[in-house]
Structures are given as C-alpha cells and as structure tokens.
Amino acid sequence: MTQESSHRVAVIVDEGSNPFELGVATELFGLRRPELDRPWYGFTLCAARPEVVMHGGFFTLSAVADLSAVDAADTVIVPNRPDPQVPPSAAVLDAVRRAAGRGARLVSFCTGTFTLAAAGALDGRRATTHWRWAQRFASMYPRVRLEPDVLFVDDGDVLTAAGSAAALDLGLHLIRRDHGAEVANTVSRRLVFAAHRDGGQRQFVEHPVPAVPDTSLGPLLDWARERLDRPLTVAELADRAAVSAATLHRRFRTGLGTTPLAWLTAERVALACRMIEQGELRLERVARLSGLGSTANLRAQLRRRTGLSPSGYRRRFGPPAEG
Fold first, then answer.
1. Which residues pair with 75 in a beta bridge?
2. Is residue 45 situated within a structural domain?
3. Least packed by Cβ within 10 Å: which of 15, 129, 135, 291?
C-alpha cells in the first residue's frame, strides 16, 4: 500500500457544503494510490462540529476531526457555500486566517472563493468563482482581482476553481505541481478524465449542447499529438479537418473552451514535462521534439505553466541522480 507522505491536506466541511467537491478532494488526495509506488498525501476531513449536515440535508457527515487539523495542514481546502452571501462560521474563518498567516496553501472549489475572501485571504490577489456568482462576488469583494471566465486561477499559495467540475481540473493541477505531469496523467487516466485542461480555458459553453455530440475534433487532436515536433499552424490543422480556420476556431472554443494555438502549446509543454521526468537532459532535444522550438521558449513556457525552470523541474520530478 502507498505510504502517507509528509504533505498534509485538510478539507474543512461546513454546514451545507456540496458533496461533489468533498468527493473530488477525497478522490484526488485522500484515496491511496498503490499503482504509483510513492508516498501520497496525508488527508483529513475536519469541521467546527462533530456532525455536519451536507447540502440539501441529504445526509450528515459525522466523526470528522475538529478544526485543529487545519493548524497542522500544508494544504487547506476551504468549504463552499450553498448561499455564498451567508458568511461561514466565525470558527471556520478563524481557522482559514490562521492557515493563511502561517503560509499554508489555500484552495477553494466553486463558491469556496467566498470563504477565502471573507477571511481576507484574497485581498489584492487573483481568483475566480462560479460564473453565476461572479457579479455578486465582485460587488462584495472589490479588492479581489476576479477573473470570472476561467476554470481556475493559480496565484501561488492561493488557488481557486470555478464550478464544481473545475475542482477536478484544479485538483489535477495541484497533483501536477506536487508530483509532476506523469503522475497527474496516471491519476487522470484512473479517473477517466481529461489529463490537462489549462486554467485559462473558459468555464462554460455559450451554445446549447447538441443532441448528437460533435466528435469531429477527436481524430484531429490525435493526429496533431503525433506531430507536435513539427511547426503546425492553424491553417494546417484546418486543412486536415477540411474546414476553414474560422470554423476550426469555433469548434475549439465550443468543444474545448480554448483556441487551437493555446491547445497546441499546452500539449507541447505537457510533452516537454514528460521528457524531463523520464530523464532527458538535453534541453535542445526536449525543445525540438516537443515543438517548442528553442530552449528560450521552453524555459519561458515551462516557467509560465509550472512556475519552475527546466532545471528546477528536473530536480523536483526527474529521475534521482546516480551515485
């Protein structure tokens, strides 16, 4: 069985919390991952009271730890609110403030952004929340730099996700930050979930879902992934899909919430990360085979998307040094 690592995750559960986000946190950080053959997270559910009624009153969560668990956690996931205009309890806010004061990593899913803001942890910082509540949030917390039309925002030690499904995207992003792209890919395959959706992708599709899903992008994406080392252009992708460039842009926006070039860049960075994790030392080769072109562009893109230089990424996620 996978051993518990020294990185401790505490999830605060409050009255009316949404079971979906609780399930996402438990699935990603709480369940053992013996297939990874590495220590996983220490995981604790905690609340201000021993029993918590979940959203809609469908069930009561009992036998959870008290809020002192927050004081020992490296990552704290704060509770979302069924009515974000109703503030969390004073005990929850105090626990979040203590965590922020000692530099713990703070995470919110969906309307949990309101909890972070109410605790003062988002003043002057970038954040997102569910699109339905974006206007309300902006009026209540004008000091927060709200980005209302993205899946999640990584602002270093404070990370926020939009709607419920975006919790999975942010959770996998955290695993990628902590354990590297290959481990995050393994977990996403176990979940049968997209391995990487960039945080800058849009929260929702503007058009109704068609009765017959548009699967036309699938073959094109597979074709492009096999050719990432080539200088692919939007025109070439459009020719391959037998559509105009404008139509291709529309299909990417509708189906993936991003542009063709942004998707290509994300795929190339993910490939570069995998190569570094697997032990490739020659940055020129990584840049060339991933399609990022130059080592300068490799460094810039890797730092922008992971916060690390190639050498820093190798030290953190690459094979152990010999000797």
1. 9, 105
2. yes
3. 135
